[in-house]
Amino acid sequence: MAKLSVYNIEGNQVGEIELNDAVFGVEVNENLMHKAVVAQLAASRQGTQSAKTRSEVSGGGRKPWRQKGTGHARQGSTRSPQWTGGGVVFAPKPRDYSIKLNKKERRLAIKSALTTKVNESKLIVLDSFELDEIKTKKFVAVMNNLKAEKALVVLNEKNDNVIKSANNVPTVKTALTNTINVYDILKYDTLVLTQDAVATIQEVYA
């Protein structure tokens, strides 16, 4: 099992923690991580784009001119795609972009992402993360103490003081253990977990 130092919000080491290899020490599957990221980004697409084809555009019932003898190219309708006001050739229609990942794939992808952070020494464990008030300045000070500039901060339970203090910091995102995903873990350089969050993640994914 890998051992990591545990820090307080002042950035001082206060202990050590052993990480479960079944969660933080698996064989990294890059293909699954990529698949999970693609699935998440696809699921976030609205899929509501729509345009009309020539059969849906109003008008165009009469032939604009006779077939022969005018010098123009033959035309059957003023709503053909080449006409102004005509329909779109391959018009986009509402669709579902979501990609299905089964439960085992999702779990292994998250464990691979967590293992990646451990391997890169980009995982910081806090004994706890408590702020006595909602103050962006105090949150930034904690991040500076941990030397974590672009970070994903994962809490075990909702803490409004921490979450709201982080809202105005563009390089930081907060999440709960039940909302972590591969995209966010890989997007942010540093992963900051509280000890409680580590325990919960190991309990859920081991």
Could you explain how this protein is built, in words?
InterPro entries: Ribosomal_uL4, Ribosomal_uL4-like, Ribosomal_uL4_dom_sf. One of its GO terms (molecular function) is rRNA binding. Keywords: Ribonucleoprotein, Ribosomal protein, RNA-binding, rRNA-binding. Belongs to the universal ribosomal protein uL4 family. One of its GO terms (biological process) is translation. This protein is an alpha/beta fold. The chain folds into 2 domains: 2-45 and 99-205, Ribosomal Protein L4, Chain: A (3-Layer(aba) Sandwich); 46-96, no CATH class. The chain is built from 7 helices and 6 strands, in the order ββαααβαβαβαβα. It has helices at 21-24, 30-43, 103-119, 136-145, 160-166, 182-187, 195-205, and strands at 2-7, 13-19, 123-126, 151-155, 172-176, 190-194. It has a 6-stranded mixed beta sheet, sandwiched between helices. Helix 4 (136-145) packs across helix 5. The longest helix has 17 residues, at 103-119. The two termini are 13 Å apart. The mean pLDDT is 92.
